[in-house]
Design goal:
Radius of gyration: 19 Å
Largest sheet: 2 strands, antiparallel
Mean pLDDT: 84
Helix content: 55-70%
Structural class: mainly alpha
Number of strands: 2
Order of helices and strands: EHHHHEH
Shape: elongated
Strand content: under 5%
Distance between the termini: 19 Å
Strand order of the largest sheet: 1-2
Low-confidence stretches: 1-11
Number of helices: 5
């Protein structure tokens, strides 16, 4: 027997546990807000700014997938969703400032998420950091490691 603790992933290793619960909650709120906004914009004003409103709905769907993946420990899907979110918010953020004609109205990701307190800009960085941290196992050396 040994008095060494058993190896466990950091933070429980689960994406939806510990501080990950808050992350999942924030993703959930954005999923509802962005999807509702996107559905409304596409259903009522699509002809005014089709690119902006379709991207707004897409952002909402990305948040839905990210929320589900983080909450249910579907790490590969979560990596993809959060990475797409990061690329999306950075791309749309730049385009909405450079090409104002395609973004006459605010969307979730326009202005780097300015209308949402820049949470859409910060969230993917936190999401990727959390996925990385919970994916690394805290390795405890075994007695066999000392042998050779």
């Amino acid at each position: 027997m040994t008095d060494r603790p058993a190896a466990r992933p950091e933070h429980g290793g689960r994406t939806g546990s510990g501080p990950g619960r808050l992350l999942v909650a924030v993703y959930g709120v954005l999923a509802i807000a962005a999807t509702a906004r996107g559905v409304y914009q596409v259903a009522t004003k699509l002809d005014e700014a089709p690119l902006a409103y379709v991207l707004s709905l897409l952002a909402g769907l990305v948040y839905v997938v990210a929320t589900y993946a983080l909450a249910t420990e579907r790490r590969t899907v979560a990596w993809w969703a959060v990475s797409i979110e990061m690329v999306g918010v950075l791309t749309v953020g730049v385009l909405s400032l450079v090409d104002v004609g395609d973004f006459p109205d605010e969307t979730v990701w326009s202005g780097f998420g300015q209308g949402y307190g820049y949470v859409p800009l910060v969230l993917p960085f936190l999401g990727l950091l959390w996925l990385w941290r919970t994916g690394r196992a805290a390795r405890v050396p075994s007695p066999q490691d000392d042998l050779g």
